[in-house]
Amino acid sequence: MEDTITPGVDSEVGPLRSVLLHRPGNELKRLTPRNNDQLLFDSIPWVDRAQQEHDAFAGVLKGRDVEVLLLADLLCESLRDARAHAAGVHAAVDDRRLGTELADSLRSHLSGLDAPVLGEVLMSGMTFEELPASEGASLVRKMHHPHDFAVDPLPNLLFTRDSSAWIGDRVAVSSLAMPARRRETALLDLIYAYHPRFQGTARAYGAHSAPVEGGDVLLLAPGVLAVGVGERTTAAGAESLARSVFADGLAHTVLAVPIVQTRATMHLDTVCTMVGPDSVVMYPLARDSLVAYTLRPGDNDTLRVDGPAPFLSAAAEAMGIDRLHVIDTGLDPVTAEREQWDDGNNTLALAPGVVVGYERNMETNARLEEAGIEVLRIAGSELGSGRGGPRCMSCPIARDPISPATH
Ligand SMILES: NC(=[NH2+])NCCC[C@H](N)C(=O)O
Question: Which residues form the active site (predicted)?
Fold first, then answer.
């Protein structure tokens, strides 16, 4: 086997070596004005342009020597394993929606598909009209509109940040909160279980535990996690993630950070991302209001919960630094609000002080540059229609540790 980069991530900003992206595909073509809200998109993206924007994003990463893995490739390679193929079929067919007759015939159809064809169905779903012609006419089939989904498409696969997250040398496959994204768990689960590249990878957390999404998890420093609790990750999710990372020795402190439960702030990384070992870009309203509960291992398997205290001071204390420096999204509140909505806060660090950001967030980018941060700008007018920026669209698989010299 060729040399592969050893997975492992212990910070938000250590030099990025390998990352998982998803080039948007046919699943985006399923979005219509009737289903876009439910499928968590704010408008109907122009798919070709979204692909060009994504190729350019991947190009920026490759240009900085980052290995880019594409989810569709990993999925199809995994599905060549018969066990993965069976798991994929199992996850695609929902008996409650289809009824036994149709579910059985769909299962047997999918079981006979080659890996790439099954992979395509798993990502972009299947309408009733696309179901193979089957003998016994099912009532379900007759009564559904031909354009209804027999297998739901997964347009949010684009946001690889949320469906899995590496913590140290382990991967946590997320338990996603929204119905439109739940099946992503099964795909990531089978990739990490069966792709040759990830053989032997240990898991953190359990894919079927209380909801935790990767967009809510920030690796503030080795051993220190912040977990947003809001529309997606629940308090129960944060608590059980904390238990699990303490038990595995992956962290000594977890900060549970309540975030406003609105679409604009669905994850912690929509209001705050790290741009250096001790600096963040942050939405001003969040800077002034975010608090954190500090969780640490207690005696006899218990959790110690302290706080709430202001987030910035709780974070600095847990990280063992004097101060967490904040770069604001914008001085003027209206610009700040607009740029927060357009993922101005959602930067992806390629190294300490080097981040990728959407070009449209001109004020935030200018402020980052004033603070000495290099901003690699990408276009995102179409990619952003699902409300996600460079951090949401990337799942780091390997980062080098931050060297002491960069502190
Ligand atoms: N890490 C993030 N902020 N991800 C953004 C995900 C956006 C996606 N449409 C959703 O609503 O789930």
Answer: 392 (amidino-cysteine intermediate)
